[in-house]
Design goal:
Elements: H1 3-33, H2 40-64
Helix pairs in contact: 1-2
Length: about 60
């Protein structure tokens, strides 16, 4: 297990997920509520979860091969 690769994967997945979640919550608030607010709590929560789960799944998948 290469810890450097896991950290790079975590950071990249975290960043992409944070940006996408922030945009989605912003658009949701604009369309539904008419306000421009980003739900940072939900965005960070999703980013941490996906940042851990997706690289872990990829590591397990590559070990099986």
């Amino acid at each position: 297990m290469n810890i450097k690769k896991l950290l790079v994967d975590f950071v990249s997945v975290f960043a992409v997920t944070l940006i996408v979640s922030a945009i989605v919550t912003l658009l949701w608030d604009l369309i539904v509520h008419g306000t421009s607010a980003i739900d940072w709590e939900t965005s960070v929560r999703f980013a941490v979860l996906f940042g851990i789960i997706l690289p872990w799944m990829e590591t397990r998948r590559s070990k099986e091969k």
